[in-house]
Amino acid sequence: MKQVTASGQTVEDAVQSALVQLNTTEDHVDIQVIEEGKKGMFGLFGQKRAIVQVALKENPVDQAADYLKEIAQAFSSDVLVHVKLVEKHITFELEGEKIAMIIGKRGQTLNALQHLVQVMLNRHAEDRYRVVVDAEGYRSRRKDTLEQLALRLADKAKKIKKPVTLEPMPSYERKIIHSVLQNQQHVETLSDGQEPNRHVVIKPVK
Amino acid sequence: MEALITSIVKPLVEHPDDVSIDVKEEASKIVYHLTVNQADVGKVIGKNGRIAKSIRTIVYAAGTDTKKRIYLDIM
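Output (structure tokens, whole complex):
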């Protein structure tokens, strides 16, 4: 943790000089007063300078971004991490060479990464963050693919008049399937099986 | 590779100083044996081994460049 000790005529002065050194503002630090300053008599005798210790508060979101970056470095040396925070929803967008390696087959490496970042971020947090780790628009590409797949298999289910079972997927991918088929009258969808083998079944409606 | 494993595991546990890795190299595979503080075992395994599975997925993916197969042993 980054911290500095600073002194000044008064506590405020000392804090201000510490903030300048850390190049930050008062909301991002923890302040500990070590010595209250004393003006002294006529500004001459018994004068004591105020001493404070100011520590930079670690922002959990920054920590998570660093964590992600450190892991991504094992795949390629120049990965950029962009952070987008909307209330408690955080999106980390990875960018760089060899991104395909980080995504993995059907996004399995990316999903593992997302899971670990979520665990790491919520380990001490009182309010939970929802984490999405994305790479080069993979999540939206995958959404398009899944929507097309869902529509195609819904037609198939209708044609063969039998339920169609999809391969196991994580919950947010199953949700995409459910919501795209919600308004289709001729089929209904449900999820079957236990995690991590939980999968969508598309059933024709008689 | 050891660096990757420690950097994945350390932020997840309460006692990062107790994280250690033994490497055993065999003819066709490299085995990384991860040990953590007794109190942190659950934190690296997770419900139904989900965290352990995620760690392995990443480590194996990062190890595709190496010629030998990689195994990650936890505890």
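Chain B has one domain: 2-74.
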